[in-house]
Design a protein that fits this description.
- The chain crosses the membrane at residues 54-74, 80-99, 106-130, 150-170, 177-198, 204-222, 234-253, 259-278, 285-304, 310-328.
- The protein is an all-alpha fold.
- The chain is 75% helix and 0% strand.
- Among the domains are: 7-36, no CATH class; 257-351, no CATH class.
- It contains 13 helices and no strands.
- The two termini are 37 Å apart.
């Protein structure tokens, strides 16, 4: 069945093709603009377009699980080495059709994850053969054990993953790949540091996660400000940068300071203002998790029955989510109205 929903860009293409008069197009565009209802949703989320995308993603997920189970049953023989190449070819064919032709985001993400995992595991196997340890493993469990104890393997996996995401994004323009490219750059740098200085750097892991999250958020802001009206695909790339960067930043800060109220309350307030200024909900969602945590701590200190505490926390968090859901645009207008005359205001979405 053909899609019968048309945008102004589609109608303008009809004008260029001679199917519609230019004056009629201008009058139609003006009419639609004047009578268009106010947008209630300004943060587009196109993870799936309908049940068919979910259906495809479910099928590909089940097939991928079956593939990894089957691969794990093989030992160090010819099939163990050849089967992954067949699987990689199959995933590439699927990617060409699903990501390249159908442009289905959710199934494409499943294919991306499965293909990337297969490539990285196979790269570790090849590395083990090159360094002369391939005789010591017989299945994927042995490969995993080797990979988890080798710093050089971590660097190899980071480089393979980064290169894969670059290629996948350039080929299919999948927005989540753009965010993973940024994440991969930091992963490669962290792996290089581990290779140079050893496992002693693990004590700084929370700091590294915080820095990574802040870098992803900063990149998201840069991308977002290039397109404040969110009319091109880069806005969705920024969306995924926030989705990955916000929880990394907030959760790692909580881990560093044991989710202390004196730290988390300012962090939550900053996350809320950040979300409202940029019209992005991901940071505020991550912050609301710790609103629940702090509320739970407060109710426990008040010696309230644990069962009642759970209910009260649900009421607090649920009420805040609903309040932001119903009053999001109003809250943005209140926060941003004092800055309407500022030059930097044009880089933010309209309120």
């Amino acid at each position: 069945m053909k899609n019968n929903q048309y945008s102004l860009a589609d109608i303008e293409a009809a004008v260029s093709a001679g199917a519609l008069d230019r004056e009629a197009y201008i009058a139609l565009a003006q009419y639609l603009t004047n009578h268009a209802p106010e947008a209630l949703e300004t943060e587009k989320f196109t993870l799936f377009r309908g049940m068919n995308d979910i259906f495809l993603a479910l099928g590909i997920t089940v097939l991928s699980i079956g593939w990894f189970i089957l691969w794990g049953l093989y030992s160090n023989d010819a099939v163990f080495w050849i089967a992954p190449l067949v699987a990689i070819a199959g995933f590439v064919v699927l990617a060409e059709y699903v990501a390249g032709k159908l442009k289905a985001t959710l199934p494409s993400i499943v294919i991306m994850v499965s293909l990337c995992a297969t490539l990285m595991i196979y790269a570790v196997m090849l590395y083990m053969r090159i360094v002369g340890t391939s005789a010591e493993f017989f299945n994927l469990d042995d490969v995993w054990s080797f990979g988890s104890t080798s710093v050089n393997t971590a660097l190899l996996v980071a480089i393979i993953g980064f290169a894969f995401q670059v290629g996948f994004f350039l080929r299919y323009r999948l927005p989540v790949s753009f965010a993973l490219i940024a994440f991969g750059i930091v992963g490669v740098l962290w792996s290089l540091l581990l290779t140079a200085f050893g496992q002693s750097l693990n004590q700084y892991l929370d700091y590294m996660i915080t820095l990574t999250g802040l870098l992803l958020l900063a990149l998201g802001v840069v991308v977002d400000t290039k397109d404040p009206k969110r009319v091109n695909g880069w806005a969705e790339c920024a969306f995924w940068l926030y989705v990955i960067g916000a929880p990394m930043t907030i959760h790692s800060v909580a881990a560093l300071f044991d989710a202390a109220a004196l730290v988390m309350i300012p962090v939550i307030i900053i996350a809320m203002l950040f979300s409202l200024f940029l019209d992005r909900r991901s940071p505020i969602i991550s912050g609301l998790i710790y609103v629940g945590y702090l509320a739970n701590s407060g109710f426990n200190q008040a010696a309230i029955d644990p069962s009642i505490t759970v209910a009260l926390v649900c009421f607090v968090v649920g009420g805040l989510v609903m309040a932001f859901g119903f009053g999001w645009q109003k809250a943005r207008h209140i926060v941003l109205s004092p800055f309407e005359d500022q030059n930097w205001r044009r880089y933010l979405p309209p309120s």
